[in-house]
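Input (structure):
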């Protein structure tokens, strides 16, 4: 296998779309979810996100990175307007619709309606994806503006969770593979997973 060595000047010389795809792959396989929001006029919105991370367990917090709002970002606007959103794990039976939700629909158009994705509601006022096996409701706790590139990091508190009981192990482990949760690499490559094994808690004495 031939190796290449790239430096910052090489990134600068890349075609914009090529560079976007290339750099997007560097962080490896990423989580994949649909963010469901609603604005104060009652128009719902759906967008794929691959930048969700665990922030803390007590209280239960999740973080989500949003791109700069140099163009209309309906998801970000709705979250700042209402203070809430949902995250819905994507599975094989609707990943193509999930991908298409990244298209630039007008703010008056709901991606749910345009793409034939059924919305549902529980305790959160934000919409969930009916087909999603794992549904997470969040309320906005903090927003950080990243000066380096104009992105925004949102911290949300988990206020609601809907998922199948039989994918939860006795120790609290959630079997995402059993739920059919997909993952993504780059901007448009979708993948199923294949678990190798669960290892015991790492201790020096295990060596």
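Output (sequence):
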């Amino acid at each position: 296998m031939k190796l290449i060595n790239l430096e910052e000047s090489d990134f600068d010389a890349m075609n914009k779309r090529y560079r976007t795809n290339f750099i997007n792959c560097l962080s490896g396989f990423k989580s994949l979810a649909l963010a469901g929001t609603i604005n104060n006029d009652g128009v719902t919105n759906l967008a794929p996100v691959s930048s969700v991370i665990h922030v803390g367990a007590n209280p239960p917090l999740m973080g989500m990175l949003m791109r700069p709002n140099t163009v209309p970002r309906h998801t970000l606007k709705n979250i700042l307007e209402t203070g809430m959103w949902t995250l819905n794990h994507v599975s094989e039976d609707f990943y193509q619709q999930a991908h298409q939700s990244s298209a630039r629909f007008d703010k008056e158009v709901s991606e749910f309606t345009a793409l034939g994705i059924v919305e549902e509601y529980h305790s959160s006022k934000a919409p969930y994806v009916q087909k999603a096996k794992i549904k997470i409701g969040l309320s906005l706790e903090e927003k950080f503006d990243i000066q380096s590139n104009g992105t925004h990091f949102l911290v949300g508190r988990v206020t609601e969770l809907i998922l199948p009981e039989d994918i939860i192990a006795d120790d609290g482990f959630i079997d995402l593979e059993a739920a059919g949760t997909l993952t993504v690499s780059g901007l448009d490559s979708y993948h199923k997973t294949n678990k190798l094994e669960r290892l015991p808690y790492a201790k020096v004495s295990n060596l």
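Notes: The chain has one domain: 29-192. The two ends are 33 Å apart (CA to CA).
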